[in-house]
Amino acid sequence: xxxxxxxxxxxxxxxxxxxxxxxxxxxxxxxxxxxxxxxxxxxxxxxxxxxxxxxxxxxxxxxxxxxxxxxxxxxxxxxxxxxxxxxxxxxxxxxxxxxxxxxxxxxxxxxxxxxxxxxxxxxxxxxxxxxxxxxxxxxxxxxxxxxxxxxxxxxxxxxxxxxxxxxxxxxxxxxxxxxxxxxxxxxxxxxxxxxxxxxxxxxxxxxxxxxxxxxxxxxxxxxxxxxxxxxxxxxxxxxxxxxxxxxxxxxxxxxxxxxxxxxxxxxxxxxxxxxxxxxxxxxxxxxxxxxxxxxxxxxxxxxxxxxxxxxxxxxxxxxxxxxxxxxxxxxxxxxxxxxxxxxxxxxxxxxxxxxxxxxxxxxxxxxxxxxxxxxxxxxxxxxxxxxxxxxxxxxxxxxxxxxxxxxxxxxxxxxxxx
Length: 418
Fold this sequence. Notes:
The chain is α/β, with parallel strands linked by helices. It is built from 8 helices and 17 strands. The chain has helices at 114-127, 185-188, 202-210, 220-237, 260-272, 291-297, 312-328, 393-400; strands at 18-26, 74-76, 79-86, 93-100, 135-141, 167-169, 174-176, 193-197, 242-249, 278-284, 304-306, 331-333, 348-353, 360-362, 378-380, 388-391, 406-411. The strands form 4 sheets. It has a 6-stranded mixed β-sheet, with no helix packed on it. The two termini are 37 Å apart.
């Protein structure tokens, strides 16, 4: 780890396990292949008992070995499943990155400016082969107000002063004109480069970075508000993606709304909303006391802190790669059924095969809040119509240490619940 670089709780190692195969299976009395949902009589829960009625969730055959013979055959508990293996894809990752282009980004690092270090590192990030497939969009703060008007004589809230880039002083109920920075989240919710997969998006991102120059203040509240708004809109339009907000800044909030509690509340609302938008924070420089609070509220533990020195560019690139790994490492798509068939969310299991070890079923818990402090478990991203399988933190940590681990999704047998 570089000197002066403090990583988030996720650490430097991304989860190395790959979702090697998704198994479409049917636990039926006859063990017939190529069925997605269960049918027939009998049952096979975790103990082989299952349901006794016809067509019950995860109903299965009469006993059978854990791994029955035959091509692609897999079993859970005491029942057997004739299975068809299908390679599944890791959940696609999209990130909306908000770059601080305030005047303080011209501060020297000993090897160019902070702005040069940050933009140079990000250019390297979007061009590296390992980032291929990740969706990236960018915007900057501060921006000039899209609608410039005179500050009103009186203000009831900060929103009244947004058009003039001013600050509302509640005691006086008066707008004080700012330095021309936009305080409107709507301006920052419009990307300079829209989110698109790498490497195709790389040329537009590089051109965008080259066309910007640091100036102005640090309207963190408005910038973060707009970042989360656009990320949420994108996530709604792409429900099978993980969408995150990334705030890269070199200082404390300096214009518009500067109340740290209000800024943290924005990040917390994004992390607890549906769809969830986690906020990752990269801080460059020394005035960084507020950034851990934003990251913690945003569901990502703590900020990535980059010293303003000659290694700033390398540290920033490492932070971006750690963010990519942390956001992606333990989220997997739920295998889709053949046309005309439906998913039985109570008939899905996750199987972990350690390097050189025997396969083991990872039990399900209802939510992240029920994840055990140690041991193996997973949960759905949403309880009703889930789109993702997510490993609990302790499970991800364990699997991340096994570079040759294999993770499979088994579809068709009653879910093993913790």
